[in-house]
Amino acid sequence: MRLRQIPGSRKKRAVGFRALGVIGCLFLAGCVVSPPVQEMSDARQAISAARAAGAMRFAPAQLMAARRWLEDARHALQIHDYGYAARDARTARQRALAALHAALRREQALAAHYHSGGGTSGHVPTSPGRGG
Q1: Domains identified in the chain, total number
Q2: Are 46 and 66 in contact (CB under 8 A)?
């Protein structure tokens, strides 16, 4: 026994499938995340600024942590995991800024120490706020 087809039902079904396909494509296009170019750039600039401020001397652990996070971000970027790349780049920037601020505080403490006449003793203060 054959089922009788309703006139126009095939067309309606085809239009429905096309509409579903278009909606699916639009949904997938909305889910595609672009590479975190700005976050990567911000992290690199923060690391450069920290290095220029003497972070390798005054805050090496923080600067190295920032570099590791940036390297992780680069790896995530290479495998197109843009969510992790953006997150790791933001973390790298935060770590680099912490290294920058630590280096600047340390440099200011050294400058204050030397300007106060303590520079001739050969003693370098260990942290801001501690006199020599």
Answers
A1: 1
A2: yes
Residues in the chain: 132
Whether residue 78 is contained in a domain is answered as yes
Q: What is the pLDDT of residues 27-39, one digit of tens each?
A: 554 454 799 999 9
Rounded to whole angstroms, the Cα distance separating 83 from 89 reads 10
Residues near 30 by beta carbon (within 8 Å), at least 6 away in sequence: none
Spatial separation of the C-alpha atoms in residues 81 and 87, rounded to whole Å: 10
Structure pTM?
Answer: 0.63
Supply the range of the domain harboring residue 50: 37-117
- Predicted confidence band of residue 13 (pLDDT cuts 50, 70, 90): low
Residue 56 burial (CB < 10 Å; 0-12/13-18/19+)? middle
